[in-house]
Design goal:
about 900 residues, alpha+beta, 12-stranded antiparallel beta sheet, 7-stranded parallel beta sheet, 17 helices
């Protein structure tokens, strides 16, 4: 039989021979991995050096102020005190500073007129309308708002928690007084008997007691803190036991300081009561009182964390029988009349320079006009006039004003300083329940809040006098200067939109491209056309001229929009405006960076809100949800807030690139308008520090081509502004407010030409009202134009610009301009001496060149001072002074 030899295959589970790539493939793979690793390392190094190690801004931050050492309080002996019951601290040629050594109340005596101003009403303790805590607040100089160790809010007022307990001391300082308050109920329910004490210290003291063994037996080991003993519950609840133990500890040499030492060393939250040590300083400076809180000297104990501090809530408060008003920086300015009976409405509350956008809510319930100046005032019809300037810490200030009949019998205004940021973290449980946990910044702001109170004479009477006093002071400080008049015609301000990114179509296919709205050649025709109609002094703010249009990329380089024309065309336009007496300004935004900006690291360069992943991104207001983070289909309208840390770098790079455009002025869209912080944990920049960084950037940019055109016009931008647009020419119509005044305008008129928002983009347009308001406020007209149809905005992020066609607005704009110019050309470059609110809706504005302007808002003609002012009209009168 033939045998068949069968060749068997290897078993399936036999280990296969490992495959190996050819050498050249392995080399390629290893090289690719190496290249990727090298790229990652280079990116990390770039981020480290370019972003994380960028600290140039720190050179701009203030050096912490040195603390003046006080000396033992030495009052000045007077034969006859000008203020009975009070002690003279110091005086100068104009003022005397007094203090009540029992209550820490301070008073200022004015030698020129005998007026006395108190930090607290002398009869506050007997106020018939105030009771309980409201009376205590009326008698307090400081009110502290804080969180305890469990993040529960609390409030201490200096009367209940310091002065009434005699927990304050007085020191003499140069030209003034320091009052050091200790806030908190320092009394212990166990006396000096420690609730927590280390075993070694307990043994040390009980060995020195006659009944040491008995005292020692009343302590039990405290498991939560190794090595510490805890007083038993039974001993804590026995008054007789505690009296005996207090006597024993005292006999052993144990003191209150030892008690605080042991309770603090235990580390137990709430072991010692919450307390604060806060110094308050008063100094005289000519006709002014400077009030300061040296924050670096504040001491927090017991786990309490101060987040807000109200300063001199009742300073110069006016009573029920007095007549006068409070002056508030509400938009253009407002008056709150004493005792106006508006007791059922909210107090006036407003942040200086608006709320920090980084900490504002994502929902908008209404549009408000920000307070752009850090001034407020109090005027009595008796002639007493006090102007207050928030000299330091104004960016962290919430200003409050109220009238009599709400909490007490007084009308008052005061600042609240935000020393720590705080927010709420929403917590959600598994059962569907939710709660909010307060989040408080760890470190207190290292800024010394300072308010300077100026005591004005009758030369500076009322709100007009206050404005003129500020105006003259700013001129002396060379913050502003009088206009060098080349032409008596007022400017016509025009925002000219050059280009904006929008949806375009090619063969029915949509794509993103530039919509050219106002090429330079068309702009030239518009300028010439306006000149033919007698408008020579044209100031044009050219928007959307570079880096992809209106919503431009970060401005660290300049790439002009080709469709607008050449740089030569732009220069020809600028030269034409210059010949006519106007100027061409190029618009740029630095702080608000569009969402789709190129060359921007959103992750590292954007301001953050506490949590590492939360960056500041905002956009349009959704008409239904009212969220201000909507793009409405146009992502470029969403913007990030550039961290102040990197602002200087972008400004320097843009400034270098802008040198070739020396024929242009520079218009700043946001540097004088918004101010925000950066709350990164590692590089925290508060709003006061951000202001210093912005001011340095403004100074850098102002070196180019003689001043800046600034939008918004916050007070810190005055020194670098050649023109201001979008300034407040109205106020917020809060119910508590009585009258609207041009307080802001009176400060800068004659020094910085200005205009309000564009009138053709207003929700309500009334030509007559526009003319009258502009004449009263000394403001030039302001328009937003395009040289092509505004229908071109339909598929762009500027679709809200529905009414910008120059051809449609030309006749109205020319008519409005000539009407306003006819009145204001006579006072261009002049200072407003006074503004009067007369009966029947008549306003009278006095200028220092001898001109009076009457504005009649009523429907009837009015005779006043021999002048006939027609209904809904105005009149100019030359007056010899």
């Amino acid at each position: 039989m033939t045998k068949t030899r069968i060749k068997l295959k290897p078993e399936m589970n036999t280990k296969k021979t490992e495959k190996r790539h050819p050498p050249h493939v392995r080399l390629f793979i290893y090289s690719l991995i190496g290249i990727i690793a090298l790229v990652i390392i280079m990116i990390q190094l770039y981020e480290l050096v370019h972003f994380r190690m960028h600290h140039d801004y720190k050179a701009l931050l203030p050096v912490p102020a040195t603390h003046e050492q006080g000396i033992e309080f030495h009052p000045i002996n007077e034969a006859l005190s000008d203020i009975p019951g009070m002690t003279l601290v110091t005086d100068n040629d104009i003022l005397k500073l007094y203090v009540d050594v029992q209550t820490a109340n301070v008073a200022i005596y004015d030698k020129r007129n005998g007026h006395v101003t108190y930090t607290n009403p002398p009869d506050a303790a007997y106020d018939p309308l105030a009771g309980g805590v409201n009376r205590s607040m009326l008698m307090s100089q400081i009110i502290v708002e804080f969180y305890d160790a469990n993040r529960l809010p609390g409030r201490y007022n200096s009367y209940d928690y310091s002065t009434s307990l005699m927990q304050f001391s007085l020191e003499s300082i140069q030209n003034g007084l320091r009052c050091i308050y200790t806030f908190g109920d320092l009394s212990s329910p166990t006396g000096i008997v420690p609730v927590y004490i280390s075993r070694e210290r307990l043994e040390f003291y009980t060995e020195r007691m006659p009944d040491g063994d008995t005292v020692y037996m009343r302590y039990l080991p405290y498991d939560l803190v190794p090595g510490f003993m805890q007083l038993s519950e039974g001993a804590r609840k026995g008054p007789a036991t505690l009296r005996r133990m207090n006597a024993s500890f005292e006999a052993a040499g144990y003191t209150e300081e030892d008690y605080i030492l042991d309770m603090t060393a235990s580390g137990v939250e709430g072991a010692i009561p919450i307390s604060f040590i806060i110094p308050l300083e008063y100094r005289l400076d000519n006709d002014e009182l400077i009030v300061t809180i040296p924050v670096r000297e504040i001491v927090e104990k017991g786990g309490g964390m101060i987040y807000r501090l109200q300063l001199l809530r009742s300073f110069a408060a006016a009573g029920l029988e007095e007549e006068g008003y409070l002056v508030i920086p509400n938009g253009s300015g407002s008056l709150i009349r004493f005792n106006n009976g508006k007791t059922y409405t909210e107090d006036y509350l407003q942040y200086i320079y608006g709320m920090d956008e980084l900490t504002s809510t994502f929902t908008v319930l209404g549009n408000s006009i920000p307070a752009r100046i850090p001034y407020f005032g109090i005027y009595r019809d008796t002639g007493e006039c006090i102007l207050a300037e928030i000299e330091a810490g104004e960016t962290l200030t919430l200003l409050t004003a109220s009238v009599s009949g709400k909490l007490n019998s007084y009308n008052y205004i005061f600042p609240t300083f935000i020393l720590r940021g705080n927010s709420s973290l929403a917590m959600f449980g598994t059962t569907g329940n939710e709660a909010e946990l307060p989040v408080v910044e760890q470190f207190i702001t290292d800024i010394c809040p300072t308010v300077r109170y100026s005591f004005l004479t009758t030369e500076y009477k009322g709100y007009s006098g206050m404005a003129r006093y500020i105006h003259e002071k700013l001129i002396r400080a060379e913050t502003i200067s009088r206009i060098s008049i080349a032409s008596t015609d007022i400017p016509l301000y025009i925002d000219l939109v050059g280009s904006v990114k929008g949806q375009k179509f090619f063969l029915s296919v949509s794509y993103a491209g530039q919509n050219i709205m106002s090429p330079y050649s068309d702009a030239m025709k518009m300028v010439e056309n306006l000149a033919q109609h007698g408008v020579m002094h044209q100031v044009i703010n050219y928007q959307g001229w570079f880096n992809r249009g209106y919503y431009h990329d970060v401005p660290n380089r300049i790439i002009p929009i080709r469709g607008l024309g050449t740089i030569k065309d732009m220069k020809v336009l600028a030269d034409k405006l210059s010949v006519l007496g106007g100027k061409l300004y190029a618009d740029v935004a630095f702080q608000r960076v569009t969402y789709d900006s190129r060359r921007y690291n959103m992750r590292l360069e954007t301001s953050r809100y506490y949590a590492g992943g939360m960056i500041a991104a905002y956009g349009q207001v959704h008409p239904v949800t009212l969220f201000k983070t909507a793009s409405m289909g146009y992502p470029e309208t969403i913007y990030n807030l550039l961290s102040p840390r990197f602002l200087g770098r972008y400004v320097r790079k843009f400034n270098n690139a802008f040198q070739q455009y020396s024929f242009l002025g520079l218009s700043l869209r946001d540097l004088g308008d918004v101010l925000h912080s950066d709350k990164k944990r590692s590089e925290y920049i508060n709003r006061e520090e951000a202001k210093l960084i912005v001011q340095d950037s403004l100074q850098t940019l102002s070196q180019h081509n003689g001043g800046l055109l600034i939008s918004g016009g916050n007070a810190y931008s005055f020194s670098t502004a050649a023109h201001l647009i979008n300034v407040p020419v109205s106020h917020n119509d809060f119910y508590i407010v009585d009258d609207e005044i041009p307080f802001y305008e009176m400060i800068i008129h004659g020094c910085i030409p200005y205009a309000g928002p564009p009138v053709n983009l207003s929700d309500v347009y009334d030509e007559t009202d526009l003319i009258l308001r502009s004449i009263e406020y000394g403001a030039s007209p302001h328009y937003t134009f395009t040289t092509v149809s505004s229908s071109m905005f339909k598929y762009t992020g500027l679709n809200r610009f529905y009414s910008t066609d120059y051809v449609n607005w030309r006749d109205s704009a020319v008519r409005v301009y000539h009407q306003i110019n006819a009145a204001l050309s006579t006072v261009y470059g002049s200072t407003i001496l006074s503004h009067e609110i007369l009966q029947n809706d008549l306003r009278l504005i006095h200028y220092d060149n001898g001109t009076d302007i009457f504005v009649n808002y009523s429907d009837q003609p009015i005779y006043h001072q021999g002048m006939l002012v027609n209904a809904k009209s105005w009149a100019v009168k030359e007056v010899e002074r």
